[in-house]
Amino acid sequence: MKVFKFGGASVKDANAVKNVASILKKYSENEIIVVVSAMAKTTNALELLTEYFCTQNSKKSLQFEEIKKFHFEIIDQLFSDKNHEAFSDVNLLFDKLNSYIYNEKIGTFDFEYDQIVSFGEIISTKIISHYLNFSGVSNKWIDIREFIKTDNSFREGKVDWQKTSELIKTKLIKSFGSENSQKIGITQGFIGSNSDGFTTTLGREGSDYTAAIIAYSLGAENVTIWKDVPGILNADPKYFDETQKLDAISYLEAIELSYYGATILHPKTIKPLQNLGIPLDVKSFVNPEAEGTIISSLTKSDSLIPSFIFKINQVLISISPRDFSFIAEENLSEIFNVFVKHNVKIHLMLNSAVSFSVCIDFDKIKLPLLIADLQKDFKV
């Protein structure tokens, strides 16, 4: 069993979808679960739609129509037969989304975010599954929400590993594979569901993590993440003129790079793979025959090439007691509890005698609430 993951850039338009089909044709005799993200920029567009919905902004209608138009332009280019089932299936999904955003808001912003933004993955996988079948790559569409179970931490769902692994081992694997006509399963990244059946998400760019969850649960032989770069580079080519490809790195090096901001992998991806020694291959969908980067337990290549990380959209927050007293352990405990309450991750921190500074991701929804809470007891 292999697990593939294709990100948004790999399915950004009709030609990109056709390229995915050509790659999968070469592996059509293998049992593969293919994890697919929302189509390029769709998650951003759905995030904006969520914001408009939660603030009752009249722009939500136009935003919805733009998202729908984008997807149907791709479908039009993929299927000459306008009566193809793909049109009705995707139209039904947009009807559901449209109905949702014209009902009353029923939960927190994070709850509504997960219910709305998750449509990106559902829609993209429907389109791709239909096109693969149309182009001769027999496959089974799988709703991953039936198998990946999380708690109620919307936007940052924490996986119930015992329940998830059991469902994947006992039920997901029976829906396709050697005992069925389809050897390829197409499913969504980034999403799951809680015990009440509501959709949850695993954190921004969480599709890599989905692939790792599935691979761990099935004991897959390997995971391949298909990107628009030749592998893992030692620096982001958007910011550095000269970069080098890392042919092989260890799990430890990969998790350090991703944690501190390398965007090539989701930070949670590595641990489940390392636990079972499942290798991760990062390859280019532009040049699929080329060697990529192998991530495994071997460490001999880690120190050969230095890596540089450039992390954007960061906010520096400096916190100090109101009475100029020292920052003591009890102060740090209070501060950390506020960050936990708002589900905000700290990337870097610096402690001095009378102040504590942290660096976090900019989040226009969470940041004002976090600062307001900190200001109840501290100078911020």
- The count of DSSP E runs of length 2 or more, i.e. the number of strands, is 16
Bulk shape: globular
Order of helices and strands: EHEHHHHHEHEEEHEEEEHHEEEHEEHE
SS-based class: alpha/beta
Give the number of helices: 12
Q: What top-tier CATH class of the largest domain fits best?
A: Alpha Beta
The appropriate CATH architecture of the largest domain is 3-Layer(aba) Sandwich
Assembly type of the chains comes to single chain
Distance between the termini: 51 Å
State the helicity in percent bands. 25-40%
* Largest sheet properties: 8 strands, mixed
CATH-assigned homologous superfamily of the largest domain: Acetylglutamate kinase-like
Q: In terms of per-residue confidence, which ranges show pLDDT below 50 for 5 or more consecutive residues? A: none
Radius of gyration equals: 22 Å
**Mean pLDDT across all residues, rounded?**
93
Strand order of the largest sheet: 3-4-2-1-7-11-12-10
Number of domains: 2
Our estimate of the beta-strand percent is: 15-25%
CATH fold group of the largest domain: Carbamate kinase
Explain how this protein is built:
The protein is an alpha/beta fold. Helix content is 39%, strand content 17%. α2 crosses α5, α4 (85-101) runs antiparallel to α6 (119-134) and α7 crosses α8 (207-218). The longest helix is centred in the first third of the chain and has 19 residues, at 60-78. The chain is globular and about 70 Å long.
